Amino acid sequence: MSGFRHRHVLGLEGWSRDDVLQVLDRAERFHALNEGVVKKSPSLRGRTVINMFLEPSTRTRTSFELAAKRLGADAINFTPSQSSTVKGETLLDTARNLQAMHPDVIVLRHSASGAAASIARHVEAAIINAGDGTHEHPSQGLLDCATIRRHKRPGARDLAGLTVAICGDLAHSRVARSDVHGLGILGAKVRCAAPRTMIPVGFEALGCEVFDRVEPAVEGADVVIMLRIQKERAQGPSLYPNNREYSRYFGLGPRLLELLADDAIVMHPGPVNRGLELDPRIADGPRSVILDQVTWGVAVRMALLELLAGDGSVAAP
Ligand code: NCD
Fold first, then answer.
1. Ordered domains of the chain (ranges, CATH)
2. Whose alpha carbon is nearest atom 12 of ligand 1?
3. Is the pTM of this model over 0.85?
4. What digits encode the pLDDT tens for the residues 137-164?
5. How wide is the angle at C-alpha 60 spanned by C-alphas 57 and 66, nearest 5°?
6. Is 229:246 a contact under the CB 8 Å cutoff?
């Protein structure tokens, strides 16, 4: 029995320490498996996973597909440009029709906050939120925790004693929200920084310190997570004067790197706007664990799929 108490993975808000640790501990095993020659553990043989990505994705979609296949499940990618969504079908109708084919898991990315929670009420399949608007991206939050644990607290279970800075477009980042929840649950101290125009009202209530300058956030930090400016989500006038100013005051370059702890690591969920929020020398430098995050992404998604759809999964409401 997995004993996992969630039927869907919609967000990390409200998760317990044990929920997060169950995923991370299982992911450690899959991470080791994925480093071997035969990357298969067919515990989801006979199960079906549908990837329903209604927004662009490189890492998340590929890694969910790979994760499902490495577990022996049938994985289908639903491509919006070739589907009836372009003919005006609603999300709920699409989801109900996919449900009629009896998938075990639907992985959904959608531009509307709350989209995953809303279809979870209408289908029997387990829903994994792969990013809903500006709300949450729980598998990214978990893979970030897994990456940090491996690099900064090897052998430990939680992240107590670490300081993590999250810098950039807090207003539009679902990654930031899931990271703040996940990191806080595991005992890390979280500081967030953004230009004032990109700090949502009440953001500190999520459980972090909030700064309108980067320096106090990154000072002595063990980990810094840089966020992409999500221009596609911003409506109305630009939230910052121009790219040059943004990269000068909020981009991570050699000047800010000096302020971090000596052995600090640098992370980014991708895709990186090179030269804007992150200096390419740092993105490709020795502190960067950005590609490791991608590697952990597969292991964490294998863990989530197995906990939701494996033999031992419990279907609590
Ligand atoms: C993120 C997303 O889509 O929220 N990407 C990802 O899943 N790695 C972050 C981003 O788009 O900037």
1. 17-136+295-309 (3.40.50.1370), 138-290 (3.40.50.1370)
2. 228
3. yes
4. 999 999 999 999 999 999 999 999 999 9
5. 120
6. yes
